[in-house]
Batch of 3 targets.
Target 1
Amino acid sequence: MAVKMWRRATGLVLRAGFGFALLSLGAQPAHAQSGDRSSVASDIVIAQGETVHNVACVACSVYVHGTVNGNIAVVMGNVEVTGTVNQKVAIVLGDLKLQQGGTIQGDVAQVGGDTELDGGTIEGRKARVPMGPIIFAMMMPLLFLALFIWFIVWIVRRSTGPRYPYPPPPPPPGVR
């Protein structure tokens, strides 16, 4: 009975969470301006001659051929600029490519990924954290967990296993 109730409650929570996630993907925040663009898992393209305000993207890429008057924030995606970005650009786990004629007038903050300046310019400051420290920081908890498990196994083997890994040596001659 308790297992059946647990499964029922778990299923209800999962369905409610999934429904909320689907509804929130299409919703825009109340403070969003009419020229803002946001997307999840679908690339954003600002065409040449087009002007938008802020751009936010998760698990997708942003291609700027026109003008972005606000900021660009991308998580797990790339930013390619051939147009103009008038404010800041923030990229987490993605690449930045500035092509010929591409300009970022504000600051650029990048965590992981590479930066290619193929004739483009960054007029503001640039801060970049390479991928190595990020991987190291993400792997540290796993390293500690592995060491903890190894220590527990070592203690259990030491306390329950044989004292000698080989059979004891035979007794000296004449002793039974």
Target 2
Amino acid sequence: MASPDFVEPLLSFKNVRAGYGEAIVLDDITFEMPERGSLAVLGRNGVGKSTLLLTLMGFTQLRRGSIVWRGTDITRMPPHRRAQVGIGWVAQEREIFANLSVEENLTVAARPGHGPALGPVEEPRRIHGERSAPGRHCHRSDRPARSG
């Protein structure tokens, strides 16, 4: 029986082995991250940092192990369902709308749907009468670009 102080981790990887095709990139990865915790993933190029995130999101071949998100095993859950329960990634690249704030860029990337972790997700709001969507460039000349 679990102690009353036991708190389910936000995310856990247990003995995860994953990669692309025949190439194994992650081998026997195990960790837990608590709710409101943080995790730093450090390493030189090519050691699996991006593969770890892509595996969490369901975009690699998971050969062994399990991934649990908020107490639910998501190991075999398809990527679109993982997004619906609140898993996403904002990449380091500058593929953003330069004239929008960070909050506005994240709002633009939101998709209609419902995720138990987040509650209802609203439709992306309209900017200058057009729906903003990732990959579409909306020009906002009414104010200067903001960096954060």
Target 3
Amino acid sequence: MTSIRHRHDVGARIATPLRITMLGIRGFPNVQGGAETHVQNLSAKLVELGCKVESIVRTPYVERGRSTFAGTKLVRLWSPLTMGVETFVHTFLGVLWSAWTRPDILHLHSVGPALFTPLARALGLRVVVTHHLANYENRKWGPTGRFILRLGERVGMRFANGRIAVSGILGKRMERTYGVPVVVIPNGVGRPSKLRSIKVLTAFGLEPGRYALTVARLDEQKRQLDLIKAYARIPKPGWKLALAGSADHSSDYARAVVQAASETPGVILLGTQTGEALGELYTHAGVFVLPSSHEGQPIAVLEAMSYGCPTILSDIPPHREIGASNTQFVPVGDVATFAERLQEAFGAANSQRLDTCEQERFMTDHDWGHIARRTLDIYRAALAQRRSANHLGLPAANGRHLRLGVRRASSGGTLWSKAKNTAQSGPDGTYEDSALRLEPSAHDETPSGGVLRELAAKPERRRRDNVPQAEHLAEGE
């Protein structure tokens, strides 16, 4: 993996404010989703560092009239409310908007929106992509959806100016698969606001310390049905099972969860909870459970740990990566073992709370301020890349990049071009180039018909002077 060294000599705030546009989320505040929570908190901290941050959000999720939040400008762009369509339509419109507003950095979040990285680069934008989750592993997507999401991951990793993964496992996988440097910057968590209030608990019939909590959208990937089935196996549990979250779109799985909850005594559906209401639920939870089949780095787990909650998690690598000393792991889909672990937790929850020292170390590792500073370093590195590099960053032979500057000739509408194969500078600061010409094909008399012909096969070595370098340090892990 590649890590970015923060330059302390430039001070805490940047001298010239960078203009950052966030794209790829539904919106915020009070919109469920890990990427949404990530962008909301990251944007606020970037504003504190002196950046001008704009987040492009979707009209169905952010009410009319809300134009800012925590210093971040919110731009509402229309999107359809249809699964599998809204992300791509909204991202396309967002890229066009960004091409008009010309931010210093367009920051795309998740592999679906990353599909538009080449378009953004072709429009002259500097693009950073954050990989949150391998969404194509979710069962809800059919073959076409999985193909599109994989393609988004591929072009996002290959064409972005900067790449971030929220977990080390995901970062190593991307480097191994695509042969590109990926910086691992984890998700963050804010300081917990432990609340004495029990208004939310009372409204749902919950008692402090006597309920198991899970926080996730209703989705096959989150496997709430496994949790309900496990809870139903416990005879007279004395505790309740509280499920916070709702479905993004109507689905058979969401309906099955609602039906199973209604048929299982002690299971409470809380709907989407945010802010102080969610803080109250974390404060008084006896145990936090997440039986997911796939995750990137779940912010809900980070939040639960910040409150010191004992946790029962499915045994998947992203959970192992962040698991605390009081975490118990259960194989994905093992309902019987989940039932056993829940029953054990119901009898010993107070003794399983995360100790203060470990909780403080955890908070330091996932501090949003530190995450924002590291992300700002990624932006600087992306901007420091050679200004003469091509917009698309198209990979050519021997790792070079192809830059085309096309002009129309004075006669016959013939298109001519000059192309430069630009290699990354070596120790001697040199690069190679060769001239290419685009000529009309003998079989096509239209101006657009053409074949690419190399004119100068022998490269000319030149000294590259006064080119800003990315301020980073590569470290092997």
